[in-house]
């Protein structure tokens, strides 16, 4: 039997990656490139979508070259992407009309506040599963339509296309101005704040409230089906999956059973719990989102705890404070002391996401005394990730009644043993990392392979999953609860700092 190969593109916040997998779900080749982060004003974060498209083309070529494969040897191509980031482009020229507005960008906070005051918070949450927050795409699209001169009129005439990054890539991959398909998948659409979670279609009332014309929106499709055939460097290859990166990770982690969960530790961290065939509304500050939908099958929903800043705090410690030279140095520095020396850091750099959704929060370091050294602060940086995760795990339990008994983990920060041990300690459950920790690309590859017959069903995919490392809890319960109380006190001190219009 000749091996079959599936390529996945992971277009992330800081870089684009292409990974080619074989039929066992093992990695054959990887290529990765970073793109520019554009910060025009405090709180604003943009990407150049044209640059992203060229980086994506480069990593696809790079991965093929490293694998020693030709495009025609690929059975399918899957897409996974940073979610919520919003691009509007001119259908005739194929050019973006503005830089993409990134998920972390807070420029629409005031708009969200106004929408809440006029239409009520609950209306949006009930229809879309999301709290009104600058994180999501709908308000970003509305901002662009109102702030790029003449854009709203052109949009209403049907000249402009909206997309999250999946749509932008699929449109370009399948032909762009010469016949590219304008689609998105249910998982990405569920992050726009424009899709109704029950119908899985654009919600006309929400579109009206948000003032977003239907004419700009892509067609919503499943996460695993052939959307079109690629042209150019991968000509002839079916483009056969799209999933938001966190949904791709839960798919790659084989969390197909109700009650299973994973946490991905990257720039931010995103904990998703599979809640099965029905959306579970959150009362505890989580998001209700679509996990995946395979072709004609029923959708699977998730509850999600989105944490904006985890790995990005390590980057801040490295780049803004200069205390370490590389992210991995933080582990040795933190391990040089036994504890945090009483210091806690709450990285509310752009407010706090789950479970608080407080745009008025800003970062704080508390508990400082002259005793505290940079090593204690290094510990506090790492612990901020595990405590924020503990808070979303507690919220998951309140919302779903599911007590997580083991947590599957992945992402760049899981290379840090000290952090993973602390995570197991503060959750009081084992934390497990799989052998293939590139679960985001793997999930997109799995979905594309299912759509094209490379794999037959979820059981086959489940059999690929293998444990690599397991961290077991060691902390005494009393210590854990005392420190958790300290963490929550620190969070209290971060709230209410920022006033609208200030920085
Ligand atoms: N050894 C480490 N210890 C702690 N944090 C780390 C370590 N290695 C990488 N990181 C953090 O992980 C993040 C990168 O992870 P990755 O999964 O590639 O993120 P993303 O997909 O969001 O770009 C960075 O924010 C970096 O600071
Ligand atoms: O690109 P990442 O890995 O930082 O993921 C970003 C998330 O999709 C934002 O919702």
UniProtKB/TrEMBL annotation:
Binding-site residues, sn-glycerol 3-phosphate: 13, 83-84, 135, 245
Entry EC no(s): 2.7.1.30
Protein residues bound to ADP: 13, 17, 267, 311, 412, 416
Lineage of origin: Bacteria, Bacillati, Actinomycetota, Actinomycetes, Kitasatosporales
Chemical reaction(s) catalysed: glycerol + ATP = sn-glycerol 3-phosphate + ADP + H(+)
Domain Carbohydrate kinase FGGY N-terminal positions: 7-252
Start and end residues of each Carbohydrate kinase FGGY C-terminal domain: 262-451
Keyword terms: ATP-binding, Glycerol metabolism, Kinase, Nucleotide-binding, Transferase
Name the record gives this protein: Glycerol kinase
Enzyme class: transferase
Membership in a protein family: Belongs to the FGGY kinase family.
Annotated source species: Streptomyces violascens
Gene Ontology MF, one: kinase activity
Activity regulation (UniProt): Inhibited by fructose 1,6-bisphosphate (FBP).
Binding site for glycerol: 83-84, 135, 245-246
């Amino acid at each position: 039997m000749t091996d079959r190969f599936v390529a996945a593109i992971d277009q992330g916040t800081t870089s684009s990656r292409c990974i080619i997998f074989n039929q066992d779900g093992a990695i054959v080749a990887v290529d990765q490139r970073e793109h520019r982060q554009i910060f025009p004003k405090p709180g604003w974060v943009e990407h150049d979508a044209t640059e992203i498209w060229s980086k994506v083309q480069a990593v696809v070529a790079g991965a093929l070259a490293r694998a020693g494969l030709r495009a025609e040897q690929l059975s399918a191509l899957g897409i996974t992407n940073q979610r919520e980031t919003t691009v509007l482009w001119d259908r005739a020229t194929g050019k973006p009309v503005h830089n993409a507005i990134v998920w972390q960008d807070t420029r629409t906070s005031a708009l969200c506040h106004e929408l809440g005051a006029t239409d009520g918070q609950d209306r949006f949450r009930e229809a879309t599963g999301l709290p009104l927050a600058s994180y999501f795409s709908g308000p970003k699209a509305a901002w662009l339509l109102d702030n790029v001169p003449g854009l709203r009129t052109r949009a209403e005439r049907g000249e402009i296309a909206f997309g999250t990054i999946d749509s932008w890539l699929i449109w370009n991959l399948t032909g762009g101005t010469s016949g590219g398909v304008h689609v998105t998948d249910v998982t990405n659409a569920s992050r726009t704040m424009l899709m109704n979670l029950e119908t899985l279609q654009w919600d006309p009332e929400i579109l009206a409230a948000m003032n977003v014309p239907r004419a700009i929106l892509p067609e919503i499709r499943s996460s695993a089906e052939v959307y079109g055939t690629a042209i150019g460097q991968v000509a002839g290859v079916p483009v056969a999956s799209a999933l938001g990166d966190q949904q791709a990770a839960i798919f790659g982690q084989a969390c197909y059973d109700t009650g299973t969960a994973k946490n991905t530790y990257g720039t931010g961290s995103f904990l998703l719990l599979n809640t099965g065939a029905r959306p579970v509304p959150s009362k505890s500050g989580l998001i209700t989102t679509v996990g995946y939908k395979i072709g004609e099958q029923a959708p699977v929903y998730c509850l999600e705890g989105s944490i904006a800043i985890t790995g990005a705090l390590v980057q801040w410690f490295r780049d803004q404070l200069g205390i370490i030279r590389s992210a991995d140095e933080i582990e040795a520095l933190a391990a040089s002391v036994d504890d945090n020396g009483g210091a806690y850091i709450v990285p509310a750099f752009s407010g706090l996401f789950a479970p608080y959704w407080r745009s008025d929060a800003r970062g704080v370091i508390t508990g400082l005394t002259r005793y505290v050294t940079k090593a204690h602060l290094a510990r506090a940086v790492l612990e901020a990730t595990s405590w924020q995760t503990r808070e979303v795990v507690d919220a998951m339990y309140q919302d779903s009644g599911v007590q997580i008994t083991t947590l599957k983990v992945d992402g760049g920060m899981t290379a840090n043993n000290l952090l993973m041990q602390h995570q197991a300690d503060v959750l009081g459950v084992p934390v497990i990392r799989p052998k293939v920790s590139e679960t985001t690309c793997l999930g997109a590859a799995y979905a594309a392979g299912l759509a094209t017959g490379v794999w037959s069903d979820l059981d086959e995919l489940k059999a690929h999953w293998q444990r690599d490392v397991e961290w077991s809890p060691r902390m005494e319960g009393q210590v854990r609860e005392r420190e958790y109380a300290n963490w929550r006190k620190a969070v209290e001190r971060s709230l209410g700092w920022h006033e609208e219009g200030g920085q």
